[in-house]
Write a structure and sequence with these properties.
Elements lengths: L1 H19 L7 E6 L2 E7 L5 H12 L7 E9 L2 E7 L16 H4 L7 E4 L10 E6 L3 H4 L12 E8 L1 H8 L24 E6 L4
């Protein structure tokens, strides 16, 4: 009798255990940098336009060789870093439609990737990574002036220590690019060696 009960308990317990840890089907990308490697999970389900745009930059190898050219460190382990084409036409794809966090349900919490923009619908190939919870300043309803926020689309799942290293990169207080980002540009920026989908060469 006890053995029958044990078998029945195992049969009913197995589906519950499987539900506790469902396998992810979301694509992952390994971003290899001169400071180490970060793995990000791209949420193409909730942010399909922004997520697929990032994957296109990865698949076309347009992120290889770019730098983390902007570091905004408000306090230890709080701020954001930015990397991308920095206006290089050879590494820049056409702009994409804006996916606000109010539509996707995503938020600019710790380790989340977002796409930089000017007006809504102008985002291309400049990406930011949050260090700490930046939802108040980045989510829809708060900033920028149009209150549409920025488009979050991915999150770091491995290598947060590398992200913190990048945030701690020493800044050149006089450095700028076309008059922008003065006081936010590293003297010796961390470089993206390559970015590839996990499981692909």
């Amino acid at each position: 009798m006890r053995s029958i009960v044990a078998v029945l308990a195992a049969l009913f317990a197995a589906p519950v255990a499987a539900q506790d840890a469902p396998p992810t089907s979301l694509p992952r990308v390994a971003i290899e940098t001169t400071a180490g490697t970060m793995t990000v999970e791209v949420n193409t389900d909730k942010a399909p336009i922004t997520g697929k745009n990032f994957l296109r930059y990865v698949d076309e190898k347009k992120l290889d060789g770019v730098t983390f050219y902007r570091v905004v460190k408000v306090q230890p382990e709080f701020g954001f870093v930015q990397f991308g084409a920095l206006g290089d036409p050879k590494k820049t794809l056409p702009p994409i439609a804006h996916e606000p966090t109010s539509a996707t349900g995503l938020s600019h919490t710790d380790g989340v990737l977002s796409v930089a923009r000017l007006e809504a619908g102008s985002a291309r190939g400049e990406f930011t990574i949050m260090v700490g919870d930046n939802s108040y300043g980045m989510d829809a309803g708060n900033a920028p002036a149009d209150k549409l926020g920025y488009a979050a689309f991915a999150r770091i799942v491995e290598g947060r220590d590398v992200l913190v290293k990048i945030l701690d990169t020493p800044i050149d207080p006089t450095k700028a690019t076309q008059g922008a980002f003065k006081g936010e540009m590293p003297a010796a920026p961390v470089k993206v060696v390559r970015a590839r989908r996990v499981g692909e060469d």
